[in-house]
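From the pipeline queue, job 12 of 40. The input is one protein chain; the requested action is below.

Action: predict structure.
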Amino acid sequence: QVQLAETGGGLVQAGGSLRLSCAGSGSAFGFGVMGWYRQAPGKQRELVATITSGGATNYVDSVKGRFTISRDGVKNTVYLQMNSLKPEDTAVYYCAATDPFRTNYWGQGTQVTVSS
C-alpha cells in the first residue's frame, strides 16, 4: 500500500520560513514526478511545485524565487523549502506522487499558516 507522509507544517510570521517533508513508501518501483499542491479556504487546489526523478523542477509563478523543491531518490522523500512566506501562502499543503505506472497518490495534507 502506497503512503505519502507529510511533516513540517505550522504557524509562522510573514517573512519566515518552513520546510515541508513528504516520505513515500510502498511503491516497489519508486516514484516518478513528486510535488506539492496547496488549497486555501474557498479556493481550488493549485500546483505549487513539482520535481521529476531526473531533478527537473517546475514552480507556480507566485512562489518562484521563494520556494525550493528537492528530493532524495533513495529515501523517496520530497522537500519544500519555503522562505519569505506571505499570508497568501496560508493553505493546506498536499504532497503528490506518481508511480511508474502513472498512478497518482496524495498525502493527507499539512496546514501552513502565515500570520501578518
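Job complete. The chain has a mean pLDDT of 96.
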